[in-house]
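Intended use. Records such as the Transmembrane protein 208 entry shown here are meant for training and evaluating sequence-to-structure methods. They are not intended to support clinical decisions.
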Amino acid sequence: MKAAKRATRGQELIYKENQETLLYYTVASLTSAFLFFFAYYLLFESSWKVWAGFASSIFGQLAAVLFMKSGVKCVKGPRGQIIDAGVDLNDPNALGEYCKDVIILCVISQLLGLLTSYFLLILAAFPIYGAYKLWVLVIAPWIFAEPPEEDPMDEKRNRRRQNKQVIYRR
């Protein structure tokens, strides 16, 4: 019986890097969240606006971490070899980059929010950036796309239709 082919180094490397990346961003999220929570709970006087900003920041971090975690599900073979490492979180063209950006922005807003709660307004960059990406990647190319070129057969059909319309107008 032949031994099963070992998974390529690429899949093993992707799996290892995904686990490290996920751990790094999870620890960063939890650290900044606990630091912000305990600082405002114990040291600073806070209002409902601060807690609303904190809640939206936590929601963004949680959604990004869970999305990243769902993308790195590893498929292993019967002998424990890695068949599929999941999505590469470190690929600059993948959605993992956007998730990491969300976590970084939330962590920065929480840490700067320790200086003044007005830094929580940095979270308003999410919808602004989302609208920008929607415009650049979806709406603008659709609106400003050139019409498809007509085939020579379509031109002939259009001329025949126009000739028929001219005949029926009399």
